[in-house]
Amino acid sequence: MNKIVESVHTRHLSLLTLIREDHVRHHCDWTRPGFRALAVYRFGVWRMRIRSRALRAPLSFLYRRLFIRIRNRYGIEVPFSAQLGRRVTLEHSHSIVIHGNSVIGNDCYIRQGCTLGNKSLDAPFDAPIVGDRVNLGAGAKLLGKVIVGDDATIGANAVVVKHVPAGAVAIGIPARILSKVALASAATDIRQSMA
Ligand SMILES: CC(C)(COP(=O)(O)OP(=O)(O)OC[C@H]1O[C@@H](n2cnc3c(N)ncnc32)[C@H](O)[C@@H]1OP(=O)(O)O)[C@@H](O)C(=O)NCCC(=O)NCCS
C-alpha cells in the first residue's frame, strides 16, 4: 500500500480555505453534488494531518460514512488518497471515478462520466497525473499512468491511453491530438468561406 501524500498545492492551506475556494468554484451553491463530494474529500485528507490515531479514529469513522453517502447518492468517488489541487470543479454528478493514486493539479474541470483509473488489473496502482487548468469533457476516460499536461483539453468521451502534451486538445478513442495547427487552419477555412 502506498503512503498517503497530500497534494503539494494544498498541504499548507487550512481545511476552511480549501472548502471556501471549492464553494466559490461551484457557484457558491452548497447543494451541488460536486461541491459536497469535494468537501468530504477535503475533510478526508485534512483528518490525516492529525497524527494521533486515537484522535483521528472518530473523524475517520465520520469520513467513511460521508464517502459512502456521496458515492451512493451522487455516483462520485474521490478517495482521500488521490491528490487534488485547489479549486477543482466537479461539474454535475454521476459516474465520476477518480483512482486513489491519481494526481490532479489546480483549477481543473472534471465533468460527469469521467474516469481517472488504472488501465488493467495487472497494474492496479497505475493512475493518471493531470496538470493545472486541465479541462476534461463529459465522459472522458484517462487510463493508466498517463500524464496530461497543463492547460490540455480532453474531448467528451475521449479515451486517453497516451500522454497528452501541455495545451493540447485530445479527442476520440483512442485519443489523438487535435493539433493547434489543424484548429488554426480550420478557423481560417471558416473565415474564408464567410468572406
Ligand atoms: C474537444 C472539444 C473541446 C473541441 O472543441 P473545438 O476546439 O471547438 O473543436 P471543433 O468543434 O472545431 O472540432 C474539431 C474536430 O474535432 C471533432 N471533435 C470535436 N469534439 C470531439 C469529440 N468529443 N470526440 C470526437 N471528435 C470530436 C470535430 O468533429 C471536428 O472534426 P473534423 O475536423 O473532422 O470536422 C469539444 O468538442 C469537446 O468535446 N468539449 C467537451 C465539452 C463537454 O464535455 N461538454 C459537456 C458539458 S456538461
Give a quick summary of the entry.
By secondary structure, the protein is α/β, with parallel strands linked by helices. The protein has 4 helices and 15 strands.
Description:
The relative contact order is 0.10. Residues 184-188 have low confidence and may be disordered. This protein has a single domain (15-181), classed as Hexapeptide repeat proteins (UDP N-Acetylglucosamine Acyltransferase, domain 1). The strands form 3 sheets. It has a 6-stranded mixed β-sheet with strand order 3-6-9-12-14-15. A 5-stranded parallel β-sheet has the order 1-4-7-10-13. The longest helix is centred in the first third of the chain and has 22 residues, at 53-74. The protein is globular, with a radius of gyration of 18 Å. It has 195 residues and is α/β, with parallel strands linked by helices. Helix 2 (33-47) packs antiparallel against helix 3. The chain has helices spanning 15-25, 33-47, 53-74, 180-194; strands at 76-77, 83-84, 89-90, 96-98, 103-104, 109-110, 115-117, 129-130, 135-136, 141-143, 147-148, 153-154, 159-160, 169-171, 176-178. Coenzyme A binds at residues 92, 111, 137-138, 153, 155-157, 169, 171-172, 178, 183, 186.
